[in-house]
Design goal:
Bound molecules: NADP nicotinamide-adenine-dinucleotide phosphate
CATH architecture: 3-Layer(aba) Sandwich
Number of strands: 8
Low-confidence stretches: none
Largest sheet: 8 strands, mixed
Radius of gyration: 17 Å
Structural class: alpha/beta
């Protein structure tokens, strides 16, 4: 396992615990799932494509006990899929210790979710929050609800922009970060901790030509640039692993500690001013 010493120094065993990872078939989610398995957790990969989820399970089972890896269907662009997932999860497990929301889109191909929301905002913010609300009761007071937001949450605006580009992405993460902070502050003793993570920047399939509306040359150039100049997805996923298995309190933000939070080992940081201002208005804006 890469970063073995870091794992030894910063994380506790998750043996006997159950962890769900949305988007666990790819990129940061896949690397985080691997880290959680390494720490002894049973991991459920919650994914929209059965084929890609099974392929990921195959890769993980080459390294870890296959019975510790489960696959479940989840499409965050469809509220009925989110509700069905939560119901099914509740039937299979009375208790979940870690719920890691990692699935997300950037410049996606579709324009709207099944329920008519703009795609980026619908998946990254509204779908993610609907899922969190639906599974929260399974986590209990010692559970950790972990969200993957982004450094660009500080550039998010209150108004939904036209189109599915950078502004839509920044807004989706801004809404998500503000939700996490507001929920962390309103947490009662019987509810799970709410933790935000920023993975920094890393080369994953997020920019791939199959998933985005970018021109293929731009996607390839972007991927190569990020691969050369930013940290690996394994290192980016340490933010999520620390949030799941480190000494991290409710309301924390975990991000890479390098320049501008782009790369590096994870450390605790704070929500930006923009997000704090939005969070002060409460969580009602997520009632969709
Ligand atoms: N990479 C970065 O530099 C970076 C920076 C900041 C934040 N993030 C955040 O990190 C998270 C993981 O991204 P990544 O970079 O690892 O990209 P990735 O490799 O493309 O992973 C994204 C995951 O989300 C899943 N997903 C997308 N739409 C979904 C939907 N409607 N329902 C369920 N799952 C869906 C994808 O499934 P498929 O494989 O089926 O498409 C994939 O498993 C995202 O939330 C992203 O915004 C990434």
């Amino acid at each position: 396992m890469r970063y073995e010493k870091w794992y030894r120094d910063h994380t506790a065993s998750l043996k006997g615990q159950v962890a769900v990872v949305t988007g666990g078939n790819s990129g940061i989610g896949f690397c985080a799932a691997r880290g959680l398995l390494h720490l002894g957790a049973k991991v459920i990969l919650a994914c929209r494509s059965e084929a890609r989820a099974e392929a990921a399970r195959g890769r993980l089972s080459a390294e870890f006990d296959a019975v510790e890896i489960e696959v479940m269907h989840l499409d965050l662009a469809d509220f009925s899929s989110i509700d069905a997932f939560a119901e099914d999860l509740g039937k299979r497990y009375a208790k979940i210790e870690v719920f890691l929301h990692c699935a997300g889109v950037y410049y996606p191909r579709g324009t709207h979710t099944v329920d008519g929301l703009p795609m980026t905002e619908g998946v990254n913010a509204y779908g993610t929050v609907r899922l969190a609300r639906a599974v929260e009761h399974l986590l209990g007071e010692r559970g950790r609800m972990i969200f993957t937001t982004s450094l660009v949450d500080r550039f998010g605006r209150d108004k939904t922009p036209n189109g599915e580009g950078y502004a839509a992405y920044a807004r989706s993460k801004y809404l998500l970060s503000a939700y996490v902070l507001a929920r962390a502050e309103g947490r009662t003793a019987t509810e799970p901790s709410f933790i935000a993570t920023h993975p920094g920047i890393t080369a994953t399939a997020l920019l791939s030509p199959e998933k985005t509306t970018h021109k293929p040359w731009f996607s390839r150039f972007g991927h190569a640039f990020l691969y050369l100049f930013t940290h690996s997805p394994e290192k980016a996923a340490l933010t999520a692993v620390l949030a799941a298995a480190g000494e991290v309190p409710n309301g924390a933000v975990i991000a890479p500690r390098g320049l501008f939070g782009i790369s590096g080992y994870p450390h605790r940081t704070r929500f930006c001013k923009n997000v704090r201002r939005r969070a002060a208005r409460g969580v009602d804006f997520m009632e969709k």
